[in-house]
Structures are given as C-alpha cells and as structure tokens.
Write a structure and sequence with these properties.
207 residues; two-stranded antiparallel sheet; alpha+beta; 6-stranded antiparallel sheet; 29% strand
Length: 207
C-alpha cells in the first residue's frame, strides 16, 4: 500500500489516470470482467477448459516478465513446474489443494492438477487452464508417500464439474462443492494475473 500511495500522490498522475479511464475504458480490466460460474462451466471438445484474454498495450516481453513474477511469487500452489517458459509462451503443471469442508471429525479435501498455458503477443496475453484432474486428499497423500505407482481413482474436470459423477458419503452435493471451490480458484488466478498486468501498465503510462 505504501508504494501505491506514493504513485498516487505524485503531481499530475491522478489527472493522467483520469484521462486514461475516460479515453481508453476498454483497455483496462478486460479480464476482470470474466467471472466463471459453477452453473456455467466452459467445455471445449468434451473437456473443461477455462479461457481468459488480457489486453493491454504491453509488449511480449512485459507480459512474460509479469507472468513469470506472478507464477513464481504469488500463485502459491501446492506444487508446480515449468514445462515451457519463454517470451512466446509458458506452460506449467500445477497442483492445488482445495479444502472443501472440515469439522472436528474429518476434513474433506481434493487435490486438483491442471495445465496452465499462457501465450504472449504484442498487446495481449491469453491463458488456458486445461487437463484438469482431481484426486481425493487421502489417496493423493498416500501416493506421495509411496515409492511405487498406486492405482488411485482420479476424476476429470468434466466428471466432477459437468457430469457430477463424484459422490461422498455424508456430504450432500459433493461434486457441486468441488466445482464451486475450483471456479473460485480459477477466478482468483485471473484477477491476480490481471492485477499484475494493470499495475505495470499504469506505471508505464505515468512514465
């Protein structure tokens, strides 16, 4: 907050920013308007795929730099790895832990693994989250402890978010609750990526 306050307090910056919003309203906050809903899951070729596009007057290198900084410092997944990472595109394999519910007796959690593919162009960056799979907390952690590959049940994004194939004893609408937690995480990623781009964009305009 201290750094942002310094920017806003500098002479003439507020005037510049106001003019920017007046004349270029469609250039900012493009991706922030994207709000996926648990009741409307996007399906592409039979697979759940979340797509977002960020449009700013940034070059490919700036999109790459800001994305790399976000993925490295702010995404905070359970685990992650870069499969490809250059000024043209980034592909990551990400695993997040979703705590669905908890009580003194038990914790209901799922691990979600997915590919995040970002493509950089002059003036825009596109993101796709695909190849989504889920594994129950107990199974996933047992697999991590094992020295050999275990045959643990997995569920695809479509299994849970579209077909609602996952059920759990004593948990009503388990698939729906997992879907809601997933959509919340996806929307969080989109908002935070957009914030990473917009802050840099504002600084570039000021300069």
């Amino acid at each position: 907050m201290r750094n942002i306050s310094k920017f806003l307090s500098r002479r003439g910056f507020i005037a510049k920013l106001c003019l920017f919003f007046i004349f270029f309203p469609s250039s900012m906050g493009f991706a922030q308007s994207i709000q996926f809903s648990k009741d409307s899951i996007p399906v592409v070729d039979g697979e759940v795929v979340f797509l977002a596009k960020f449009e700013y007057e940034l070059n490919k290198n700036e999109f790459f730099r800001r994305t790399y900084s976000y993925l490295n410092d702010k995404l905070d997944p359970y685990s992650g790895a870069f499969l490809i990472n250059n000024e043209d595109s980034t592909i990551c394999l990400i695993t997040d832990y979703l705590e669905i519910s908890s009580n003194p007796i038990a914790v209901f959690g799922m691990y979600i693994t997915y590919n995040m593919h970002l493509t950089y162009n002059e003036g825009n960056c596109t993101m796709a989250i695909s190849n989504i799979s889920y594994m129950e907390k107990g199974y996933f952690e047992s697999q991590e402890k094992s020295k050999r590959k275990l045959n643990m049940p997995k569920y695809s994004g479509k299994d849970i978010m579209v077909d609602k194939n996952y059920t759990r004893l004593m948990t009503q609408n388990a698939s729906g609750k997992i879907t809601e937690a997933t959509v919340e995480r996806v929307n969080e990623i989109i908002k935070n990526l957009d914030l990473s781009f917009i802050i840099k964009y504002i600084v570039l305009i000021k300069n």
